[in-house]
Structures are given as structure tokens and as C-alpha cells.
Amino acid sequence: MMDPLDRRLLDEFQRDLPLVSRPYLAMGEQLGISEDEVILRLERLRLAGSVARVGAVVRPHAAGASTLAAMAVPPVRLDEVAALVSAYPQVNHNYQREHRLNLWFVVAAGSQSEVAAVLDGIARQSGLAVLDLPMLEDFHIDLGFGLSWT
Amino acid sequence: MRQLDDLDRRIIVATQDGLPLVPEPWRQVAGELGVEAEDLMDRVRSMQEDGIIRRIGVVPNHYALGYRHNGMSVWDVADEDVEAAGRAMTELGFVSHCYQRPRCPPAWPYNLFAMIHARDAATADSLVQRLAEALGPMNRGHLVLYSTRILKKTGLRLGA
């Protein structure tokens, strides 16, 4: 389980990983632990799933194109269509949601035309309509996510 | 807006699954890309200044940390109110993403999307209630779509 140092790693470094040659050493200095211990803890948190990764969060559309797509899939076909969608490497999120539009996924690719080709392919393979809901405006300034521990 | 060049793209692709957990992670990535570590870090700093990289850090997995009630709240707001509505929602501080998207009537009348994350259903409901209060009369109708299954989730992918 997570101890107070793990929580500080998650709370204090979501957007302030020092951009220096030895960032884990710098983090350790702030936390009062060694570079090795920072690395070991991050490895453990990543294996446990609590940390998705240590890295950059890139602005949407900064490199390439993406869209949010939605489909109304007959419940009996949900597993089949979900697998078809997830099989595309350009699909990076795929969720079942509670709505008539019950399958929601994000398609990200190097270009707008590649995104369109994936949506066309999914529509053709499934025989179902695919709603294309690209981001028009981003209102969020991403400062990380305040976690509550209690 | 600055266009990404080939090296920028290669850096994003090389780090999209995360920085290596070794003492000198930038040096290792630089070695893979065949550039100097100092040049790589300069380039990363420049992408941060230009807003291409929003942040560098530990990316938590909300779901694994117990945030199992992840709702996509969707709102029908008049086009002229979208900007004010989007700002009002993000100012509350708990929305992780807030985007305007096109409507697709009649199947889909909603044009503003805000993601919320909570550990229990009651908290999730109260967050949605706070969003509705922040919008006031700008809100012409809303829904919350909770995810019932995560079928796939990976980090950013580029068609490299």
C-alpha cells in the first residue's frame, strides 16, 4: 500500500518533474530520500498501477490529430464491436458508457486523414454509424489532478 | 502556433510511454534518438514554453487510486455561452478535461464536455450538481455518462 512518501511523489510531482539531467535525484532531495529510492518507489507504483507513467502530457492536437467517437451498439454485439474498435492501434481509449450511445473511444493519429480512415474502417467493418465529435475548443488549463487521500 | 518538426515528434514518440526510470533518463532517450542530452532537454524546455508539452511529471492512474466513478458530463449550452460556461466549470478546479465538441442532432444535442472523477457515486453526483450551479441558466440540459467498462486505455499515440 501507499505510504506518505508515495503520496507526496504523486501530489508534488504531477507537473514539476525537474527538467535536469538527474530528475529523480532532485526529487529525492526535495523528499529527503535517495535517488535510488525515488526510482524504486516509482517503479513499484507503476507496477501496482497507481502511476500510469512518468513523462510528458502533450497538448491535444499538438502532434497529429484526434477525435472522440461514439457508437450506439446493440448490446448483443457490444463485445464484438468493442474488440474491433480496440484492435486499431490509433484507438487509445475505449469505454463502455451508460447511454444509447454506449461505446465511446478516442482516435489519435498523425493526420486528420488517418483519423478519418480509422472512423470509416470501423463504420464499414461494424456496419454501424460512428459519430465524430472532434474537440473544437479546450477550456482546461492542465495543472494536474488534486488527489484527496482521506 | 508553432509547428512541430521531426525531432519534436520523435521526442514525443520516444517518451510517450514515459521516461525511463534510470538516473539519467534524458541521456538514455537522447542516445536512442542520436542527439545530445543537453539538446534534447533544450528542445523539451522549448516545447514546454510553447505549450506543446503541458507538464512533465508523475501521471497518476485515477482508476487504480480508487477513483472508480468517472463521469463524462455533457451539457447543451447556447453557442454564444460556450466560452463562459467552459471557464465557469474549469474554475471549480476539479474538472480534468473540458472541451467544446460539435452537436450531432438529433442523436446528440450536447456541445460541452467536462470529465469528473470521484471515489463514490454520491460525491460524483455532488460534483455534477456544482457544475450545474456554476452554469445556472446557461445550462439547457445535461447528462452524465459513467463508464461501465474500460475496454482500452493507453497513453498518447502518434501515428509515428
TrEMBL record, chain A:
One GO MF term attached to the UniProt entry: lyase activity
Reaction(s) catalysed by this chain's protein: siroheme + 2 H(+) = 12,18-didecarboxysiroheme + 2 CO2
Claim: Ribonucleoprotein is one of the keywords in the record: no
Pathway note: Porphyrin-containing compound metabolism
One family name in Pfam for this protein: AsnC_trans_reg2
Highest taxon of the lineage: Bacteria
Keyword Lyase part of the UniProt annotation: yes
Domain Siroheme decarboxylase AsnC-like ligand binding residue range list: 65-139
PROSITE patterns reported for this sequence: HTH_ASNC_1
EC numbers, comma separated: 4.1.1.111
Keywords per UniProt: Lyase
UniProt domain Siroheme decarboxylase NirL-like HTH: residue ranges: 6-49
Enzyme class, first EC level, given as a word: lyase
Family: Belongs to the Ahb/Nir family.
The protein, known as: siroheme decarboxylase
Source species: Magnetospirillum moscoviense
UniProtKB/TrEMBL annotation, chain B:
Gene Ontology MF term list: lyase activity
Superkingdom of the source species: Bacteria
Keyword Transcription regulation on entry: no
Record domain Siroheme decarboxylase NirL-like HTH: where: 8-54
SUPFAM superfamilies, A to Z: Winged helix' DNA-binding domain (SSF46785)
Recorded metabolic or biological pathway in which this protein acts: Porphyrin-containing compound metabolism
EC number of the protein: 4.1.1.111
Enzyme class: lyase
Keywords assigned: Lyase
Residue ranges annotated for the Siroheme decarboxylase AsnC-like ligand binding domain, each copy included: 65-152
Reactions mediated catalytically: siroheme + 2 H(+) = 12,18-didecarboxysiroheme + 2 CO2
Alphabetical list of PANTHER family matching this protein: SIROHEME DECARBOXYLASE NIRL SUBUNIT, TRANSCRIPTIONAL REGULATOR, ASNC FAMILY
Family assignment from sequence similarity: Belongs to the Ahb/Nir family.
Name by which UniProt lists this protein: siroheme decarboxylase
